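As a warm-up, study this chain.
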Amino acid sequence: MNRFIQRIRDFFRNILEFISETRKELRNVSWPNRRELTGTTVVVIVAVFFFGFYLWLVDLPAHFLVGRILQLLSP
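Now compare it with the structure written out below.
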């Protein structure tokens, strides 16, 4: 029984230590300012649309070819 209680204490001690170390690390983080955050967000949104459009263009011929193949194979 004593060992069980010790394990529970260790468990909660580890949780508190983890939270303490996490807060300490978060104080060391270099957070972006509003201008940097806005700039990187715009870059990400433009990149998502660009690659989405690119993949759509690449998919068009594949979609056409698969449709033709399925049309030929259907009775």
